[in-house]
Amino acid sequence: MEILWSEKKKWTFFALPLTFTTYSLTEDKLLIDRGFLNKYQDEIMLYRVLDLTLSRNLIQRMFKLGSIKVVSSDKSCPDLIIKNIYDSQNVKEQLSELVDKARDKKRVFSREIIDDGHHDFDSDVQDWL
């Protein structure tokens, strides 16, 4: 499994990586590693991703950071926020391209992905920053 992109979540104060969360992207999975003493790993299969949203508030823009909201049909992790990462626009584009490739590879089309209605797309953007 080749890691195409990996980065630690930054703390917005001076953009320092003072957390124990690492995001990694492979050809077909988005991996989230959390924890210091107790380690946890979540994964989202890319063909299950329904929507990607990029957000950058003033402080994030000052430190060249951004957050990406990933909405998926994954049962254990339906909504994920990739918080405070560098070069967030390019990461979002790379993620979007890999989602399309994964769907083509699995022969999954958007009409086959049915949203169960639990997502609140109209929520205030500040709630997930």
Write the layout of secondary structure elements.
Layout: E1 5-8, E2 22-25, E3 29-34, E4 40-45, E5 49-55, H1 58-62, E6 65-72, E7 79-86, H2 88-106
Antiparallel strand pairs: 1-2, 2-3, 3-4, 5-6, 6-7
Tag the structure with descriptive keywords.
129 residues; alpha+beta; three-stranded antiparallel beta sheet; 2 helices; globular
How would you describe this structure to a colleague?
The protein is of the alpha+beta class and 129 residues long. It contains 2 helices and 7 strands, in the order βββββαββα. A 4-stranded antiparallel β-sheet has the order 1-2-3-4, with helices on one face. β3 (29-34) and β4 form a beta hairpin.
Radius of gyration: 15 Å
Strand order of the largest sheet: 1-2-3-4
The percent range for helix content is 10-25%
Tell the overall outline: globular
Which parts are unreliable, with pLDDT below 50 for 5 consecutive residues or more? 121-126
